[in-house]
């Protein structure tokens, strides 16, 4: 859900859906990791506060443009290639990410962004999680192991090499608390996801050997 907030200006309906999402409300009270639980609760409170503002959601739209689109350049470039020192968007990192996703049969449908956009890389992780769950339901532990290894390696080779720095920039440059909370939540969640992926991967390895 949150990956969409990096891909486009949030619509009024989308923010309304966040506010009324029962899963998020449950996670804000019961998520095991305290920091993430509190950040989800903070985000919900901030959306509720924004909804009472007469300028909502215009201010949020304007901040998205200021942060990620900008004129002539954005305050925070949402592409891995640029954040890893390349001077062009369609460079080495983009090719690596594009080919990585193609190897998993994932083809980007949104022509307005590139594969190494922060929102697309987060979406890739979501798709891989769904594929892993489907393989688990089918009892295919070897496929689960393969998919988990792919997720771990993608986090190590791509997302975790640049996402924390981008989130730090958003937290320090945004004038909207909404985006500062979103950045902190994304950073913390991806780091915890890495720990969980490694833990489950090790467990599945043991089950496959039995």
Could you characterize the architecture of this molecule?
- There is one protein chain.
- The protein has ten helices and no strands.
- By secondary structure, it is an all-alpha fold.
- The chain has a single domain (4-209), classed as TorD-like.
- Helix 2 packs across helix 4 and helix 9 (141-173) packs antiparallel against helix 10.
- The model has no long low-confidence stretch (mean pLDDT 92).
In a nutshell, what does this entry contain?
With 210 residues, the protein is an all-alpha fold. It is 73% helix and 0% strand.
Quaternary state of the chains: single chain
CATH class: Mainly Alpha
CA distance, first residue to last residue: 37 Å
Give a short account of the largest sheet: none
Q: What shape does the CA trace take?
A: globular
Mean pLDDT comes to 92
Q: Would you list the SSEs in sequence order as H and E?
A: HHHHHHHHHH
CATH topology: TorD-like
Fourth-level CATH superfamily: TorD-like
